[in-house]
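Quick start: what a row looks like.
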Amino acid sequence: MNRRTLLGTATSALASVALAGCLTDDEPGAPTTDRSATPDDTATTRSGSETTGRSTTPADTTDDDSNWWSEAANEPDPSKDVILGNDGEDGVAHTVDLEVYREATGTVVHDQSHEISAGGEIVAYDTADANPDGVEAFRITCTFEDQTETVTIETSECYGWAEFVVSAEDELRGTYAIC
């Protein structure tokens, strides 16, 4: 392996580790106000493997390629769905309580109970309904029976939806999509 390839590989690995550290929890038991992701979350990074007809190595990446996620994190995208699901196959509907807190204004913009049929899924809220001003954070809390899950998402291009699912074993899981 030549020196340039080794240096490029090491730099890429270090950048991946640094990026992953920014997108996940240090500890699963961290308070929800300090958490940026849940333990079940997976962060995906851009690999730069678009089909070009030639081999792409880390040394071939440009500054534009390495900053795409930073640009996405600062680009507003107000519409983020909050999805509720029930993976139960026993025919039993479940009721969950959902609260969406808009951090920029310190207000609860959604506080409602939702019934989800067995095997069903609903879009319970869209952050665009709060008319966010640019990139804003929303703390979303879902409660099922004695279980509570909280995630925080932002209205940027980097974030996708938030999802809370009651499993077939009646366990509540909260996740969200992030670049």
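That is the whole record. The chain has a mean pLDDT of 75. Residues 81-178 form a domain with the Immunoglobulin-like fold (CATH 2.60.40).
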